Each structure stands twice: as C-alpha cells, then as structure tokens.
Amino acid sequence: MATPLTADQMLKALTAEGLTVIEYRDWDTHSRNHKGPWGPVHGIVIHHTVTGPATDAVALCYSGHSDLPGPLCHAVGERDGRVFLVGHGRTNHAGKGDLDVLIAVKNETALPPDNDTNADGNRSFYGIELANRGDGKEAWPLRQYWAAVRYAAAICRAHGWSERSVIGHKEWQPGKVDPTFDMGQFRVDVAAQLRRTPGKVVIPSPAPAPATTGDAMQFTSLALTDAPETIAAGQSKVIYWDAEYQDGSGDHGAGGKTIVSGEHFTGAVALRFVEPLPAGVRVRMVHELDAGGTSDDYAAELPADLARHVFAYTGRVAEDRNLVFEIENGSGSPIVLSWAAVRGGTWAL
C-alpha cells in the first residue's frame, strides 16, 4: 500500500532508471479522477495495445475512444524503447479484477487464479500499455521489452516494492491475454533490474517471443558467443552465429551466417562491444542472393558512446535470398565485439 507518486516523482524515477521518457501533452494533469479515487496504489499492470505499427498508440491511449475515454494508461511503451507519459492519476486501464489477486499483490505473495471481477484496478494500479498487436505474430523488440522492465522496476524502487508487485493484465482480469510474454520471466527480469544500480541499462538476453497459436509463427534464436572479435577501421564483418537455441524454420545451421531464408521475419539483433563505440559504425541486414551478390539491404548507424546496442528489423526475405547481419566499421579506430544475439519470429511468404 502506498500513496501514489506525484507527477514530478514519477518523471524523476523513470529518468533515473535510464529510460528515454517523453512527456505527452498535459499528461501530468490528465486523469479520470472525477470518476473515482486514485490510490492507495499496490502495484503495476502490464498491458499490450492490440495495435499495429501504423496506429498512433500514444494518441490513442491519451484520448481513448467512444467506448472507453482516455487516458487508457499512465504510460505507453513504444517499439523503439521510448516511454510516453500520457496520464497521471486514475486511468481506464485495469477495470474490475480479482480481489484475491489484489490482496496477493498487496502482500507480495503468490498470485491466485483470476476468476472474479470484484475489485477496482483503476484505483489500485499503475498501468503501462506496450505497443504490440498481441496476435502472436508480432515479436517484442528488445528495446521495448527491457524499457518495460525498467519502467516497472523504477516504480517498484520508488515505493520499496519487490517484483511481486508487478502483474500482467491477464493475471488480473478474467478473459484477458495481455501481455503475450511470460510474466514469470518478466518478474525475474524486474528483480534483476532492482538489484542493479539505478540508471544502469543492461539487456542480458533476447526479449521473449510472443505467444503463438497453431503454426502461424516459428522462432529463431541465435548467438555469437565465441568472441571477442575485432573489426578493423574501415572494415566490415558478417556475423557467423555459433550458438543455436531455437530454429523453427530450419534454415539456419549453427556456425553459419544465414538467419532466415524465404520467409517473413521480424525481430532484433542485440550487440555488446568491449568499449563504447566511436561515431561511424553501421549495421546492415543484407539479403544475399543464392546465386551470389546482395540485394535489398537495410542499414542504420549505431549511436556513438554506447557499448550495447539493439537493432530491430522487420521485412520479407525472398525464396532465393538469405538474411545475414553485417557490421561496418566506418570509424578511424578498431572496434571489438564481445557478444551478439538475434531473436525473431518467422512465417511463410
């Protein structure tokens, strides 16, 4: 049980945790307090928006819609890892849920099944909506997932709560399925973040894959563990993956460079360098032709002064092409890669 953080305290807690926070419009006074009390608060509920990339999830969560006026949450976690603050106070995010679950969150004990709707969640919980279709096909970008972890950890840290104060909407309200990742693992990751120094940004493993139905999507999880590898100034390096944790499509072989062939692909590559990068380092998702040569490659420059990076990618790999990942060192000094991993979902063309 706790008095809700003030808007100022919330902003300070999130930024201190290393998050990129965007203050959206008049978020700090935007609420549904005229409909009921806000607080005491007991925990945080994690949601997903059920919207695709073309939808402005931030504007939607701020304004709401005809059936449910906004704000629909306190924060929106975008796919690129930014957290938008859209409301402060009572918001329309949790609705009615199970009183036994609320008591367990209050006492930080094991969660019972959510089989009733006899408690007011909008009064008792902070809520973040993560931009994701929630259809089992859209992967969770690393930046987004770990931003959500740090958002929850920041609030828990401010209140002196443990990870047991964090629940998914699906654990609170019968019939809900959000979010589509494993909340048990999410709480493990929140607990790990709480043990770190505030503000330290660590992405220790690929983000979890979404739940899936039937054979709609298969998952690929690869890593480069036999490192460090030095990339000289002015040189490029294609990553050869030496660890294969999961390969649903069967198109990758451990020790090879191909991530996927002849399928749709969405996911992200996480990179860790020995030292913060100089300016001029780029990454490329290259579509190599079976017959030789490359085509349709997508590139981006990595920010300087950081040692850890995440590169998200969504696209289509033609049947005669293989998706590979390349690092281009356009700086004037060598760089040393200590670890890399790729995690994503694939589905048929």
Can you describe this structure?
The chain is of the alpha+beta class and 349 residues long. The protein has 2 domains: 189 residues, Lysozyme-like, CATH 3.40.80; 131 residues, Jelly Rolls (Sandwich), CATH 2.60.120. It contains 7 helices and 19 strands. It has a 6-stranded mixed β-sheet, sandwiched between helices. Strand 15 and strand 16 form a beta hairpin. Helix 1 crosses helix 5 and helix 5 crosses helix 7. About 1% of the residues have low confidence.
In short:
The chain has seven helices and 19 strands. With 349 residues, it is α+β, with helices and mostly antiparallel strands.
CATH architectural type of the largest domain: 3-Layer(aba) Sandwich
- Reading the helices and strands in chain order gives HEEHEEEHEHEHEHHEEEEEEEEEEE
Q: State the helicity in percent bands.
A: 10-25%
Oligomeric state of the chains present here: single chain
Number of distinct helices: 7
C-alpha Rg (nearest Å): 21 Å
Q: What fraction of residues sit in β-strands?
A: 25-35%
Domain module tally: 2
Which sequence of strands runs across the widest sheet? Answer: 1-4-3-7-2-8
Corresponding CATH superfamily of the largest domain? Peptidoglycan recognition protein-like
SS class: alpha+beta
State the distance separating the first and last CA atoms.
50 Å
Question: Kindly state the mean pLDDT as a whole number?
Answer: 86
Q: In one word, what is the shape? A: elongated
Uncertain runs with pLDDT below 50, 5 residues or more? 211-215
Task: Assign the CATH class of the largest domain.
Answer: Alpha Beta
Kindly state the number of beta strands. Answer: 19
CATH topology of the largest domain: Lysozyme-like
Largest sheet: 6 strands, mixed
